[in-house]
């Protein structure tokens, strides 16, 4: 098969569109023969909002993203689990040997057990953390203490979460999922890590929960508005770490292989992998 990759290809000659939000393409309607739009991002909530997008949409699934998310989540969990800040931020010469508990005594919950949440949960389980996972449909992931599912089991997933990792997509169902009521279900002083999407958490409820001590710390990698505006209170809160959407980035080398393999499937007449279900929103 001969492939031409060009931003200038005429719409009516284009078979597949590689797309990232923020690019020049806004109107998908002239792409009458395009078989699919392949998102360069894993999260597709912004593309799904494009009114002219009628072509099948494929989200990004590739090994580079998965590897980085494992590393980011493990690093952030270990920072809080080991209490590293006490040593890194120490000012005075005070010998204060607080030994952290071993990982098996630190229950962690991962909301979202998809490609990235599942990989992060498995990595944490390998480190010895008792990991509870939660998803929409019931899962059975080896190594996890338990897999919960559905709205009726969210309380159980939150109740034990000394560290909570959010790896859900942003959909109408998950927007503001972590509101004041849900934050109150966490154990007091819980740490929240959000590499998922900013709008999964109600911003004002999060600040209130941090101020009251209900939430001990929040490390946020994603925000309702990015870049996070310079006057946003998250920058200045002593118990918020702002991470500038760097948890996992699509890696050209591995992503190109994933895209090529998926297009090759389609050209062979096989169904594309990682199609977005518009009704579910992810
Ligand atoms: N910060 C970063 O750098 C970065 C990078 C890449 C991605 N992300 C974010 O990570 C998200 C997850 O990516 P992924 O590739 O792991 O997605 P995925 O494979 O589609 O997994 C999504 C998971 O969320 C669960 N879920 C969705 N809606 C739910 C609901 N209403 N209730 C309970 N569970 C629900 C799904 O449940 P089922 O398994 O039952 O379907 C699935 O387990 C992306 O959408 C994006 O927002 C962030």
Q: Numbering strands along the chain, what is their spatial order in the largest sheet? A: 6-5-4-7-8-9-10
Q: Indicate the low-confidence ranges by residue numbers.
A: none
**Main sheet makeup:** 7 strands, parallel
Radius of gyration: 21 Å
Mean pLDDT: 96
Number of helical segments with 4 or more residues = 8
Helix and strand string, N-terminal first? Answer: EEHEHHEHEEHEHEHEEH
How would the global form be characterised? Answer: elongated
Question: Cα distance, first to last residue?
Answer: 31 Å
Total strand segments: 10
Assembly of the depicted chains: single chain
Beta fraction of the residues? Answer: 5-15%
Helix content: 25-40%
Bound molecules: NADP nicotinamide-adenine-dinucleotide phosphate
What structural category arises from helix and sheet content? alpha/beta
